[in-house]
Amino acid sequence: MLMAHPAVLAKLIEEYEALTALHAEESTPEVQQRLQDVSYTLCVSTGTCDVTAALIAARHQLPGARPEDDSLLGV
Questions:
Q1: Which of 10, 40, 59, 68 is the most exposed place for a label (fewest CB within 10 A)?
Q2: What does the pLDDT look like over 8-48, one tens digit per residue?
Q3: Residue 73 counted as domain residue
Q4: In a domain, 74, yes or no
């Protein structure tokens, strides 16, 4: 399986978190669509089918991530 570059994953995580916060405040069709697009891209980039699993997988691929780091589970 191809793996996304950690810098790409970090950017996707950052964008997902920003869009999630924006979606909570302002749920416009544009924000909803971009959030769906980023969620899909995270899933494809990590080989997962669920955005929660994608976020965990992406964070595990970032530099400095440790398998025993349970802070990754609180997504």
A1: 68
A2: 999 999 999 999 999 888 889 999 999 999 999 999 999 99
A3: no
A4: no
